[in-house]
Amino acid sequence: MALLEVKNLSLDLKQGDVSYRLVDGLSLEINEGEAFCLIGESGCGKSVTALSLTRLLPCPPFSYGGGEVTMDGQDVLQLSDEQLRKVRGAKVSYVFQDPVAYLNPIHRVGTQILEMLQLHQPAKATPDRIVELLDRVGIPSPETRMNDYPHQMSGGMLQRVMIAMALASEPQLLVADEPTTALDVTIQAQILALLSRLQQELNMAVLLISHNLGLVESFADRVAVMYAGQIVESGKTCDVLENPKHPYTEALLRAIPRLGEKVDRLCSIPGQVPMAGHFPLGCRFHPRCSCVQAECKSVEPSLESISGQRSLRCPVRQAS
Predict the structure, then answer these.
(1) pLDDT band at 201 (very low <50, low <70, confident <90, very high)
(2) What pLDDT digit, counting tens, does each position of 169-188 carry?
(3) What CATH number is attached to the domain comprising 296?
(4) Rounded distance between C-alpha atoms, residue 29 and residue 319, angstroms
(5) What are the residue ranges of helices labelled H in the chain?
(6) Range of the domain at 47
(7) What's this model's pTM, rounded to 2 decimal places?
């Protein structure tokens, strides 16, 4: 059953007299208890998409150009501020990539978790519940560490505290926006394993946002690949990773280093993601695409279903 449905969502940013489209006609669906990943390079629109799900972006300068965001049967874009407060945190919680920026340095971590409990689960706002949450995310000696200040913890421990805070409200959907970016490889694996375990134990839906396809192989049920504000390919994770259809997905996979594979030079994607307001005509990936054809430069492709749950935005590959 669908927990979150996004239909034809468009998001604009106004600077002066000019408005730029950051997200263009995006549609996706996340089911109850499902692990879903949104993949793409920095600048593709992943984070603003995540923030737009609960209208966390300030309006202005941001504005919604159209579409629907339906969460548990309610269109989030039509809710009042009071109604939104019952969605943010309570139904949808966030874990961001830099916990140092989101934790208050002058308050103990236990106090900050208590604040979340008092807001969303007042009946459970007790020291025992704080200890339980810290223990659940793998922090040793939680009775002692709950009295630590953020500067007394490592980056990996702080990210676990952020996850504990997100779980305090018992959300239906956890949005993890590149939660491992600032961590070393070993800790990255531990955090992803933790999220996967919690998702299964709590039957909680998780939206993981990342620029690294290699991280999501064992985590996600389904994946959507985003480029220049649009979904270009989506489907079951195993299908997308084992048989990518879009040239951009193929390029992302080629750029992943392989353990034990000796190469003179790592593969890279030429050029960079175009800035909003400077998207090329036709397919937005065509200036960087190794399979470009004449029609790619003039006709903007639509996202089409190709088989089962697979969708693709590439007329060349759709026809093949």
Answers:
(1) confident
(2) 888 999 988 887 767 777 77
(3) 3.40.50.300
(4) 26
(5) 46-52, 81-85, 99-102, 109-120, 127-136, 142-145, 155-168, 185-202, 237-242, 247-254, 315-319
(6) 2-32+40-81+214-256+264-319
(7) 0.89
